[in-house]
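Dear support,

Our group has been running a series of protein-ligand predictions, and this particular one with adenosine-5'-triphosphate is the one our PI (initials K.S.) wants archived with full inputs and outputs. We had some confusion internally about which version of the output was final, so please treat the block below as the authoritative record. The input we submitted was:
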Amino acid sequence: MLKLERVAKKYKGAGRYAVHYLDLDIPRGEIFGFLGPNGAGKTTTIKMIVGLLEPDQGKIQVNGFDVTEDPVGAKRSCGFVPDNPELYPRLTGIEYLNLMGDVYQVPGDLRKKRIDYYLNMFELTGAVGDLIQSYSRGMRQKLALTGALLHNPPLFILDEPMVGLDPKSSHLFKEVMREHVREGNTVFFSTHVLEVAEKFCDRVGIIHNGKLIACGTLEELREQSQQEDSSLEKIFLQLTEEGERP
Ligand SMILES: Nc1ncnc2c1ncn2[C@@H]1O[C@H](COP(=O)(O)OP(=O)(O)OP(=O)(O)O)[C@@H](O)[C@H]1O
Ligand SMILES: [Mg+2]
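Confirmed final output from the archive:
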C-alpha cells in the first residue's frame, strides 16, 4: 500500500540529509506509527509521501502509484492532515468541506452522508456555518480530519494528529482510524505520544537523524533492543540514545 525505497532528502543549504535512504513497506489494513525525536525527519518523510516535497533520491509508491510518475493517482489515494492545518480562515466549515469534496470529486449524496456522520461524531454540527477563523485549534483539527476522510482514502496519513484534541475527541479519532483500517484502508501517522503508539499501532517505525533505526511490532522492537517486557518509551529512549553516540 505504501512503499518507500531508498528515499533521501537534503534541504537546500543543509549540511546533512533530513531523510537518509529510508525504506518502508506498509501493507493494506495496517495502522503504522511513525516515531522519532524532534528534527528526526518525520514531517519531511510525510511531505514527500503526499507530494509536498520532492525526494532527491529513491522511489515512493502509494496504492501502486508512483508519487513522481503519477502524482495525481498517488494524491487521490491519500487523505492528509498536516501537523498544523492551515485551513482557509474566511471560509465557513461547510464551505471548506464542500471545497474538499469538489477537489476530490466526492458525489453529492455520499458527500452529505459522510459530512453529517463525522460532524455529528465530532460534535461540530453546530459550528459548521461559522467562519473557520472563529474555530479553536481542536475544532480546526476535527474539521481537517473530516475533510481528509471525505473521499474515503486508501491511505490516511497524519502528522501528529493527537495534538490539540481533547480526551473524548482523541478517543473518537482513534475509533475513526480503527474503522478506516477495518474497511481495508491503511493509516500512517507520526506521534510523540508513545502510549498511543504502543496500544494502538500494529507496527511502529522509529526514525532518528533521518534513518530508520527500528521497525516492527512492539514484540519485535523488544527483541531488537533486547529488552523483554519493556515499554515502548524505554525502548525508544534506549534506541535513540544509542543513535546519538559517535
Ligand atoms: N523547510 C526546511 N528547510 C531546511 N531544513 C528543514 C526544513 N524543514 C525541516 N528541516 C530540517 O530537516 C530535519 C528534519 O525535520 P522534520 O521537520 O522532518 O523533523 P520531525 O521529525 O518532523 O520533527 P518534529 O518532531 O519536531 O516535528 C531537521 O534537521 C530540520 O531542521
Ligand atoms: Mg514534524
